């Protein structure tokens, strides 16, 4: 008796193995595409987050510098004596930059304080660019301090102070002439450990206290 047509239908073992092999190749290719798409999406999100972080850091720096005051103050540790803005390549402060700023909002004089704050920018050993705002212009060790890490992964920060068209790598302001002035503009070059750089230039306010 000859086998029926129905009994001869179906796939052979070889055909089944070939189909499984093709499916495996497609699955691997699809998985690789999905991983690449996921990695690309993460890179985009990381870049967007970094851009937002840089924007916030620049906003803080420019806002502080544009509100800088000619108010002299002494640091909480008493180093350097009474001074105006001080920073850059100087031994008068441990910070990158210190000064007093105006414009601290106090709606309806809700707090018994002025609109002045002592501001400092420092670079930690871990590569963090830190902004510290003391809640009074003449801080003591017990004065509350608002501390914010603006950037991480920073290798170095270079400052250039401009006054009357002349640059300087340091600034040592004092209440006595002729150093009782602020720079016209400050350029800040931030070098990151990944070899990227951020250049910020801001006018300095020189607002009265």
What's the short version?
The protein is α+β, with helices and mostly antiparallel strands and 209 residues long. It has 2 helices and 10 strands. The strands form 2 sheets. A 6-stranded antiparallel beta sheet has the order 5-4-3-2-1-8, with helices on one face. A 4-stranded antiparallel beta sheet has the order 7-6-9-10, with helices on one face.
Explain how this protein is built.
The mean pLDDT is 85. The chain has 209 residues and is of the alpha+beta class. The chain starts with a helix and ends in a 6-residue tail after the last strand. The protein has helices spanning 5-8, 13-66; strands at 86-88, 97-101, 117-123, 129-134, 145-151, 154-163, 166-168, 170-172, 185-192, 197-203. It contains two helices and ten strands. Strands 5-4-3-2-1-8 form a six-stranded antiparallel β-sheet, covered by helices on one side. The protein has a four-stranded antiparallel β-sheet with strand order 7-6-9-10, covered by helices on one side.
Strand order of the largest sheet: 5-4-3-2-1-8
Supply the number of helical segments: 2
Order of secondary-structure elements? HHEEEEEEEEEE
Structural class: alpha+beta
How is the main sheet built? 6 strands, antiparallel
What is the topology?
Elements: H1 5-8, H2 13-66, E1 86-88, E2 97-101, E3 117-123, E4 129-134, E5 145-151, E6 154-163, E7 166-168, E8 170-172, E9 185-192, E10 197-203
Antiparallel strand pairs: 1-2, 1-8, 2-3, 3-4, 4-5, 6-7, 6-9, 9-10
Key terms for this structure?
single chain, 209 residues, 4-stranded antiparallel β-sheet, elongated
């Amino acid at each position: 008796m000859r086998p029926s047509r129905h009994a001869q239908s179906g796939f052979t073992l070889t055909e089944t193995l070939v189909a499984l092999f093709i499916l495996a190749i497609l699955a691997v290719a699809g998985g690789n595409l999905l991983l690449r798409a996921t990695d690309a999406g993460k890179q985009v999100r990381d870049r967007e987050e970094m851009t937002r972080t840089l924007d916030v850091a620049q906003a803080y720096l420019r806002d502080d510098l544009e509100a800088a005051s000619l108010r002299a103050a002494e640091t909480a540790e008493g180093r350097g004596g009474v001074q105006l803005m001080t920073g850059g390549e100087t031994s008068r402060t441990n910070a990158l930059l210190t000064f007093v700023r105006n414009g601290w909002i106090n709606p309806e004089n809700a707090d018994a304080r002025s609109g002045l704050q002592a501001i400092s920018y420092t670079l930690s050993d871990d590569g963090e660019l830190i902004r510290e705002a003391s809640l009074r212009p003449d801080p003591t060790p017990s004065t509350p301090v608002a501390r914010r890490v603006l950037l991480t992964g920073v290798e170095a920060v270079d400052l250039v102070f401009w006054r009357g068209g002349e640059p300087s790598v340091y600034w040592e302001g004092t209440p006595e002439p002729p150093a009782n002035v602020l720079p016209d503009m400050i350029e800040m070059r931030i070098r990151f450990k990944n070899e990227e750089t951020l250049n910020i230039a801001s006018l300095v306010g020189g607002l009265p206290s």
